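Late entry, written up from scratch paper. The run itself happened at the end of the previous shift, but nothing got recorded in the book at the time, so transcribing now.
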Amino acid sequence: MLIVYIAIIVILPILSQCIRTAIEAHVKPQGFVTVIPGLFSLTYSENRGVAFGLFQNGTVIFAVVTAIVIVALSILLFKNYKKSKLFSVAAALIIGGGLGNLFERLFLGYVVDYLSLSFFPPICNFADYCITAGTVCLIVYLLFFSDFLKSGKKPKHDEPA
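Output as recorded:
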């Protein structure tokens, strides 16, 4: 199964860059393209911040933090991929999405955002949604399928359970 997780990690940033290239070629000249009126459009935006455009112009810091998270999650993935498919998919989605955004930060100095939903004001990109889906999966894993929230303290024989 490790090969599947590695494939996710490799394919997501490639797909992210292909989509970005298409957006730059076809959407950037107009600024936006309506896909589903009143619901969904493609809107070209250069994001020099992090999620939702917060903390503008911190490219170096964001790149370093992203790289640290990618390395940490990669180590956890390679150590634990046999233990949980849900954790492994979550880690692969976060790593792949993180790499997609990291490449743009390093080579462009910003991230290109383009997915605009009428009911969710921030404009995001494919990599952002990969990271979000991975984070949701990770939270589900931590809350329901891991020992993360368990204290590890067992009651003594004298104490009621």
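Residues 35 and 41 are 5 Å apart (CA to CA).
(Scratch paper discarded after transcription.)
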